[in-house]
Predict the structure.
Amino acid sequence: MTASLPYDPQRLARCADEIIVNVRELAERGWTPATSSNFSCRMDATNVAITVSGRDKGRLVAADIMVVDVGGNPVATTQKSSAETLLHTQLYKRFPEIGCVLHTHSVNQTVASRLYAAKGAIRLEGYELLKAFAGNTTHDTLLDLPVLPNTQDMPELASKVEALLDGGPMWGYLIEGHGLYAWGRDMAEARRHLEAFEFLLACELEMRRLGASSN
Ligand SMILES: CSC[C@@H](O)[C@@H](O)C(=O)COP(=O)(O)O
Ligand SMILES: [Zn+2]
């Protein structure tokens, strides 16, 4: 902490490095097209490092990561945080154990979100990769990945997410025609959850193509 900043600038630098390195790899997979997607890491009890709105997420530099408080207000900057900041900060505010939130726009996430929007969820069942989710120890389980309607009204979307969170522990949700939110206690866990969702959605879409889906 310095006299002039209400956060530790070295902590911001470490969070920014972690976001830049990981997001570059996600972008190389085509999961962040056309400046889409946003990413954040918790810095401390009240501050969050988050991507600046509109930046090319595959080419992030330190200046593209800013600080907001858990209410979503910019801290010591005039930069504009992600248009979807509220979807990040609502998670940090409610769950002190959450340390990282990742949002991507892959083709699989977007197509699956449209195919399953009417059902409101995609059932992921019987896959070994379900063990990638914290707390799961067997393939012999099921996870319903919720699909919410898209809107540009973030408070409205956030209130729908709050209702989902009331239903019990979860590691992500889809937004129709939009993409995926996934989170974890730290970057490694959030990324593992994101990659697991992406893989399982690809499997479900392939099963549908083969006419073998029970979903
Ligand atoms: C470029 S279209 C995608 C955006 O509307 C939004 O969904 C998104 O993910 C990125 O917004 P951003 O404000 O850069 O965080
Ligand atoms: Zn988005």
In short: The domain at 9-209 is CATH 3.40.225.10 (L-fuculose-1-phosphate Aldolase). Residues 34-38, 51, 53-54, 82-84, 103 surround MRU (ligand 1) (CB under 6 Å). Residues 187-209 form the longest helix (23 residues). The mean pLDDT is 97.
